[in-house]
Specification:
Order of helices and strands: EEEEEEEEEEEEEEEEEEE
Distance between the termini: 13 Å
Strand content: over 45%
Structural class: mainly beta
Largest sheet: 6 strands, antiparallel
Number of helices: 0
Number of domains: 2
Radius of gyration: 19 Å
Helix content: under 10%
Length: 202
């Protein structure tokens, strides 16, 4: 079978891509007015994690991010604010951000941005055809941290964020028990990563 070769490249993270530096003295909605915002909605070049950078200690504040995933489905996630000078980020991938709200007054300023992390889309594989060989490589001079993840979930009938993750694997693997796989990029600086998949009969 012909190999499947997919190249993924991220945009560099931006602390103000979704919302510029701001503060708020009560619970409610923050401003979506960052570099990627159009009429109060941030449209990201690719679905990725959202980051919230706190100038003061906001670890008692809950931030609720709403928007859509890469398939246009409405999603939301609540995360706790970070300590002074730190950024916390979502675990879900957002393609658009329609709102970010807080449940209490902020102590200092925050900025709303794109994180240096994401999950690529799940790539379905057919384990019934025999072993699946998978490998991934980073482009020359690229700088990023990544891992290959697999699932035995139903990728055609379950929401992307609800599929169970069954493993995080090494750079090159041979698999028989997986319905899909994806790359988790946990720290992106530059470059691209290539995922190559090939079926081989037993």
């Amino acid at each position: 079978m012909r190999a499947k070769r997919i190249v993924y490249t991220m945009a560099v993270a931006s602390a103000t891509a979704i919302g510029l530096l701001q503060t708020k003295g009560a619970a409610g909605a923050l401003l979506i007015n960052g570099l990627l915002a159009v009429s109060g909605v941030a449209i990201l070049p690719q679905a990725r994690h959202v980051s919230i950078l706190c100038a003061a200690d906001e670890h008692l504040i809950n931030f609720t991010v709403t928007g859509t995933n890469r398939y246009g489905e409405i999603i939301s996630e609540s995360i706790i604010g970070g300590t002074a000078g730190t950024a916390n980020k979502t675990t879900k991938n957002f393609k658009t951000v329609t709102g970010i709200s807080i449940d209490a007054a902020l102590t200092g300023n925050v900025s709303l941005g794109t994180a240096d992390s994401m999950h690529t889309p799940w790539v379905p594989v057919s384990y019934k055809d025999g072993w699946m060989d998978a490998a991934y490589t980073v482009s020359s001079g690229g700088s990023l941290t990544k891992a290959l993840q697999t699932t035995m979930g139903d990728v055609f009938n379950a929401a992307e964020d609800l599929l169970p993750v069954d493993g995080a694997l090494g750079t090159a693997v041979g698999l028989k028990t997986a319905t899909a796989m994806r790359l988790l990029i946990t720290s992106y600086v530059s470059g691209s990563v290539t995922l190559e998949l090939l079926h081989r009969r037993q």
